[in-house]
Amino acid sequence: xxxxxxxxxxxxxxxxxxxxxxxxxxxxxxxxxxxxxxxxxxxxxxxxxxxxxxxxxxxxxxxxxxxxxxxxxxxxxxxxxxxxxxxxxxxxxxxxxxxxxxxxxxxxxxxxxxxxxxxxxxxxxxxxxxxxxxx
Length: 135
Description:
- This protein has 135 residues and is mostly beta strands.
- Helix content is 5%, strand content 40%.
- The protein has one helix spanning 66-72, and strands at residues 5-8, 28-31, 36-38, 43-53, 58-63, 74-76, 81-83, 90-97, 103-105, 110-118.
- It has a 4-stranded antiparallel beta sheet. A 4-stranded antiparallel beta sheet has the order 2-10-5-7, with no helix packed on it.
- It is globular.
- The chain starts with a strand and ends in a 17-residue tail after the last strand.
């Protein structure tokens, strides 16, 4: 388990911090800090009311909630979104309405999940050719 520093912004007062709904949950539920109406085809970066400081060597992935997707056609764009270890601004969730009806995002409503992950750094070695595979 890693420890992630979090600060609540003024418009996030009174909202729950990201948390696991059950002991076996992989993602922490995150809630909206604003009311937004998403018409079909619209997208919006929904405020969460907090900022985080992720430890070096880690990222936090933003993922959609399956219930919003199946019931209303609401998903996160750029999924999974990555919050880098050096980002200190407000965490926002880019929601899109792929459904056929307007969707009301309400302050305090669960809108996404956050999943911390280890980052593996890579370097490329340029070669004249690559090894062959059966594909």
